[in-house]
């Protein structure tokens, strides 16, 4: 995993906030039960067959098995665009539509997130 990705995950998925260590060996305790699903969106120039079969799908394995399942997130989906430069405009549009549809089905929490960030932002006096 690239160091930048690892650093991002370490900052966002903070132990004690997002998850807690279990008392016994096993799955960590999800500290944010509102996280019902995770959708991983990737764009890469590596051909799909090469990435899945020769390289073994490293990114979804690391993030899904090694991170999100351990904190109790069960609904995981991977949307990947392999070699978008080699695809027709129609194929690229289908992928964009699929991504838009996926995120449109999610509960809309953007307003509450904006309100949260506004209430925690430092005042400008």
TrEMBL record:
Gene3D superfamilies (UniProt xref): 3.40.50.360
TM region(s), chain numbering: none
Domain Flavodoxin-like fold: 1-100
Protein name: Flavodoxin-like fold protein
